[in-house]
């Protein structure tokens, strides 16, 4: 949205997708491949949508000059937390969460600047350094009107570099010329399944609670899940349940010696590539003190590879399991493929959005996904792009 129009109080355009479901465009993924090929050395973004980071650009090669709507940072130890939900504040204010480092615990802050905020040296200094060193600065999807960011490309000229300003979509042709293939984008989201148990007073029963929660904290929102249906395999003694409001929590009582298997049907919101996924969970109330921590990066990569090979969403895997004795509980973290976008070579820049094997045509722009944002007055932000 034009900054002057927003300052005049004009309404924001209707969003075709929730902001947290926005997908990287063909250009985002082309830049990822250019970085992998060693051609793109550093990327500077004025956007706050977090799509460059989500697309796969390494954090150490990215300067987000105006912040990231999905990022919180610890002002004490500097740790950054990328969220799957939009952080509720702007202007470098404290949020409702704390640093998870047990030695720190400081209140986190959002990373998005307001108009009067100066650009942070952590982002600006490496941006200036790389512009001075660059052989070529490629400007994509920007009017170069917002200062001081618009002056960064000029720094390359002093060192003999060049500036190329692209206002039309040519990245697909450039990738074809370089004989590089634009990789698909696979979005993987995380959630936790928490099983807590305690014996009844007469010790005949187990009172247990099942909760589906955000991997970012028990009180964090879970924006991509609409509802959770709980059923039981080959067992008529338990009543099925539909959990439609967060927190998704089910409380039941079971004979102590009894074991069974339940099925979680997780229903996703519009904007995800599949409607739902079913996960079978065996319950025997034996909590082991051993933790299950596989190679997370390897598990996530296998999920991506399988999703691309099958051309469908819904693949899931356990990436962590932790047991606690007080209270007696087990927390299992699941990773699940919720979107796949495959990009094709085409002069009019079309992307194939693949979900459950079906192909949906979606036109995209150089600036992002073509989606717009609808925010309440509380969250209204002065646009910077």
Automatic annotation (TrEMBL):
Which Gene Ontology BP terms does the record give?
negative regulation of transcription by RNA polymerase II
Protein name per the record:
protein acetyllysine N-acetyltransferase
Name the domain of life.
Eukaryota
Q: Which residues form the active site?
A: 66 (proton acceptor)
- Which of this chain's residues are annotated to bind Zn(2+)? 74, 77, 99, 104
The record's annotation in PROSITE patterns points to:
SIRTUIN (PS50305)
As cofactor, the record names: Zn(2+)
- Domain Deacetylase sirtuin-type spans what residues? 1-181
Identify the GO cellular component terms for this protein.
nucleus
Q: Does the keyword Nucleus apply?
A: yes
Provide this UniProt record's keywords sorted from A to Z.
Metal-binding, NAD, Nucleus, Transferase, Zinc
Q: Locate the compositionally biased regions of type Polar residues.
A: 360-371
Q: Does the keyword Transferase apply?
A: yes
Localization: Nucleus
Map out region (Disordered) in residue numbers. Answer: 360-385
